[in-house]
Amino acid sequence: QVQLVESGGGSVQAGGSLSLSCQASGITRGNWCMGWFRQTPGKERDGVAKINTEDGTTYYADSFQGRFTISQGNGQNTIVLQMNTLSPEDTGMYYCAAERYCPFYLKPGDFHYWGQGTQVTVSA
Prior knowledge:
The protein has strands spanning 3-7, 10-13, 18-25, 32-39, 46-52, 58-60, 68-72, 78-83, 92-100, 113-114, 118-123. The N and C termini lie far apart (40 Å). The protein is built from no helices and eleven strands. Strands 2, 4, 5, 6, 9, 10 and 11 form a seven-stranded mixed β-sheet that branches. It is an all-beta fold.
């Protein structure tokens, strides 16, 4: 059974940085895709970035390219989302997701496993 646990959310002022982590358990060896999504109240969940855990290939949604970096953490089956130059528009609940094999797009419906989310609040 795959379980995802996010950590690292919190409050920060505009222009600041935060680092989110996602620890996955139950993921077998092989080609898995792990990603981050963001959801704000009243809006759909948007893809942020994804990473292929086998070869490290990454993909970013246009809105986050250059400011956010997804990487594999030091721990096994851990990914990190480094968020820089944050703005109030980045406020939201950030979810970690996982799927066997990376889908072509970064859509919520393409991922089967989800964490509970971690809140990020950016104040002006």
